[in-house]
Amino acid sequence: MSDMKILIEGSGKHCHVTKETLEALYGKGFELDKKKMLSQPGQFASSCKITVRGPKGETKMSILGPCRKYNQIELSLTDARPLGIAAPVRQSGDLAGTPGCTLVGPEGEVELENGCIIALRHVHLHADTAAKWGIKDNEIIMVKCGEDGDRPLIFDNVVARVSADYADAMHVDYDELNAAGLLGKDPMGEIIKK
Q1: Using one digit for the tens of pLDDT, what is the confidence trace for 135-152?
Q2: 103-123, pLDDT tens digit by residue?
């Protein structure tokens, strides 16, 4: 392996909401609690769960904080199918033309016109790490993983997201983590420049 090693983290279904949506679901003045801090600085999982309803079914999922400027529901292909939501693979924030759903909280419901995606696999890199490795923001790379297991593979079409506010980590959904036999481990991957 080269020295371009990155921690691979699995991301389960979750949602990001605006302050207005949060208050519509939970009541005026409601604030998210910080149940668990996540690897990216300032990001956290709250204990708040909402129901996400699609054309065919519904599921519960956690709200991640802090609140954002847009509502975004992140699913895996396995999550989306029973909901009847044909979510496209997109980079976070690229929500134009995506399907919507209904969010149901203890105090109300919110109809979303769009916002359901399957997150494009991506690597968060601190600006210093990216400079050291010669990787630019939005560059498409590959990540090799699972060499010590039964299901080694190379993830292609991985977008590098670079910022001084990021901590180094790759994010994939549980479908992808399972495909490489990495669930329940703290796997490392090797970045390969294309």
Answers
A1: 999 999 999 998 877 889
A2: 999 999 999 999 999 999 999
Quote the pLDDT of residue 147.
82
Closest C-alpha among 67, 189, 59 to residue 121: 189
Checking DSSP bridges between strand 116-119 and strand 89-90, what pairing results, if any?
parallel
Overall CATH class of domain 5-9+121-193: mainly beta
Element spanning 34, H or E: none
CB 174 within 8 A of CB 183: yes
- The chain-wide mean pLDDT, for the chain, equals 95
Measured CA to CA, the distance from residue 83 to residue 116 in angstroms comes to: 11
Does residue 1 register a pLDDT over 50?
no
| C-beta separation of 101 from 52 below 8 A | yes
CA pseudo-torsion sign 9, 116, 140, 138:
negative
